[in-house]
Write a sequence for this structure.
């Protein structure tokens, strides 16, 4: 473990620089790949189900490995796991650009997801290891702003690159940025963090955790089909079994007592799950609304929708800095309230809604998420001992992924109920609008409940840090 004097201002700047680049890379890759999916499908002759696995394989891989690699990083070194992760991500990106079949593409996306899991499970943990509570919120805010910047730039740059350079170029762009991360991590970051050194890795728990998540996530992706509901219930049962078994393990991959004995950690993670569940499908629904109801082109729709992530990127550093001075739980609760307000505004849009009203609603939503995310992450990481930063960082990513998948499952279920399996056209536009309004109302009530859970979590009391 590094000595307190090792966390110099220069070291902090280097760590923040590395965290910003790695935090930009993964969301940029994910959002740009979604834009390029039709081109990939055309080249390899993929149907809709096969095409969806290009994205699903990546998300599944991240979800399964996030918490286990967070724990491995705590035991064997966060820098070591981060370096392996960015190397794997960069190498798989390079190989993806040379894919000659759909099976190779999907297989490499699994490997790329593994590398991303290592990054997710360590980057926030390293930032938290270096920045003490009085500075951590600002650092986390800047890091999270890089995530939103990646989400914002992915569709635009990915679209242009796919159109003029081909879809393979969106993977190649990851290579030089990844190499820069590798260079700075190996050359400028001499420290290592092994805050749980000596503990045994819980392989059985990791396998059960991964299996339960695979069944749950796959089940959610099939909802509202009966098989999807059965698999989702089985996945939840697997997670309950995992929790029961972990209570008897000396060195668990995930200490379940964090949820039963650490109120701030438990409710902050629940708030994150609710927030992502209530917001992720918004872009998907509004993209359809703008192109079908308002007859905008995909490029114009994307330009309108970018108002939300840009606003997030602007407010995340500000709220992060504020959470260094004010209890982050309170700041996050304010952000959740703004998010609920933005969702309520979206329940009022219809065929005749003006563009300024829609953009204004997206800005309110962006303000809410920007205010919520950084302080909530700060609350989670500040509520645990530094020996658990890797696991806590992994849980942040897991809540995000589960929330995103649940959000899409809700949207698909409502589509099935209101529209069925018909293609969305002008003929069934009223039914689409009903399903969209139902989703926004449901998401609004979720966020209202989220405000309550966020407020009752209690005050965050940071653990003593190794770099005061």
């Amino acid at each position: 473990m590094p000595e307190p004097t090792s966390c110099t201002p220069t070291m902090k700047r280097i760590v923040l620089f590395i965290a910003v680049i790695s935090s930009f890379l993964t969301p940029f890759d994910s959002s740009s790949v979604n834009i390029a999916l039709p081109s990939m499908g055309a080249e390899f002759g993929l149907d809709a189900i096969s095409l969806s696995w290009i994205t699903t394989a990546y998300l599944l891989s991240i979800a399964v490995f996030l918490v286990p690699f967070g724990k491995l990083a705590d035991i064997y070194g966060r820098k070591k796991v981060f370096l392996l992760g960015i190397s794997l991500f960069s190498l798989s990106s390079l190989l993806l650009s040379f894919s000659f079949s759909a099976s190779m593409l999907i297989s490499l996306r699994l490997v790329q997801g593994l590398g991303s899991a290592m990054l997710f499970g360590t980057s926030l943990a390293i930032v938290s290891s270096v920045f003490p509570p009085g500075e951590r919120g600002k650092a986390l805010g800047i890091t999270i702003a890089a995530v939103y910047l990646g989400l914002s730039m992915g569709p635009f740059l990915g679209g242009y690159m796919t159109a003029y350079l081909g879809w393979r170029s969106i993977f190649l762009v990851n290579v030089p940025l990844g190499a820069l991360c590798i260079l700075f991590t190996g050359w400028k970051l001499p420290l290592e963090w092994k805050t749980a050194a000596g503990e045994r890795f819980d392989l059985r728990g990791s396998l059960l955790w991964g299996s339960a998540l695979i069944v749950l996530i796959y089940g959610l992706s099939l909802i509202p089909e009966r098989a999807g509901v059965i698999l989702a219930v089985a996945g939840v049962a697997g997670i309950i079994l995992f929790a029961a078994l972990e209570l008897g393990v000396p060195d668990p991959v995930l200490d379940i007592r964090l949820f039963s004995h650490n109120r701030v950690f438990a409710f902050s993670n629940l708030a994150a799950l609710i927030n992502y569940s209530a917001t992720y499908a918004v872009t998907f629904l509004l993209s359809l609304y703008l192109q079908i109801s308002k007859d905008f082109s995909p490029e114009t729709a994307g330009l309108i929708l970018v108002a939300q992530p840009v606003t997030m990127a602007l407010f995340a550093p500000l709220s992060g800095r504020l959470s260094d001075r004010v209890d982050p739980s309170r700041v996050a609760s304010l952000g959740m309230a703004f998010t609920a307000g933005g969702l309520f505004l979206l329940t009022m849009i219809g065929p005749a809604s003006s563009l300024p009203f829609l953009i204004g609603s997206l800005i309110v939503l962006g303000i809410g998420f920007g205010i919520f995310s950084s302080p909530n992450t700060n609350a989670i990481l500040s509520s645990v001992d530094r020996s658990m930063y890797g696991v806590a960082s992994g849980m942040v990513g897991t809540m995000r992924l589960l929330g995103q998948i649940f959000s899409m499952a809700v949207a698909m279920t409502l589509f099935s109920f209101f529209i069925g399996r018909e293609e969305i056209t002008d003929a069934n536009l009223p039914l689409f609008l009903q399903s969209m309004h139902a989703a926004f109302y449901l998401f609004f009530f979720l966020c209202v409940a989220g405000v309550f859970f966020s407020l009752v979590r209690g005050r965050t009391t940071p653990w003593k840090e190794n770099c005061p």
In short: The radius of gyration is 21 Å.
